[in-house]
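User: Can you predict the 3D structure for this chain?
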Amino acid sequence: MARVLITGSSDGLGLMAAELLAADGHAVTLHARNERRAAEARASLPGAQAVVVGDLSGIAAMRDVAEQANALGPYDAVIHNVGIGYREPRRVETVDGLAHVFAVNVLAPYLLTALITPPRRLVYLSSGMHQGGDPDLRDPQWTQRRWNGSQAYSDSKLFDTVLAFAVARRWPAVASNAVEPGWVPTKMGGKGAPDDLSLAPVTQVWLAVGDDPQALGSGGYFYHRRARGTHWAAQSAEVQDELLDYCADLTGTRLPTPGR
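Assistant: Here is the predicted structure, written as structure tokens:
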């Protein structure tokens, strides 16, 4: 039995992954944005071991969720599933003055990774749209550019992939991988999305608890349990370090060095 934490798991792909894990006898901790959604999550999956609660658009809440997780952990795997899509028609600013898409999709996975006791496996949700992302960190908060929700989302998913590979390089004892679940008909993907929803949570579950060689590896990007190529920037140590430094400056928390 593995102990797995899944962020953004009150509904959608996160909850679907939790249901698969629980059905196989694993102990799952869910995450919800607020108490109302936490109650809905418990009702949807009564077998969940626990639910951590916090709105991951704010840095203080990110820290609080990490504290809750550490109190319940340690975990064998953490699936960084939390995310928002590309349909925000304008730049939404968080309590910390950051772009909402960046805060939830990028900074939350970074800070939770830095603060939660490292598990044996980390899984980061990316997207095929990461291929259109721009790794330039001169204006990731969209304060100088005209807002483009689709581009902001693509950038965030590229940064998620960069983060997964950066952690794989920095933490060799942890299997860190990225997943492309496909364009599926969730609230984020929309009703017209063409991919098979039933397959969308399978790969992240496989990477979290699977025991074949690919699932046990690190620094991979997978779609339906098959390795897939990525944007060049994801493999760049320079881009990885730039992103880690940028997130550390925003949060005041650096990714720990193994053994310290």
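Strands lie at 3-6, 27-32, 50-53, 77-80, 121-125, 175-179, 221-223, 226-227. Residues 149-170 form the longest helix (22 residues).
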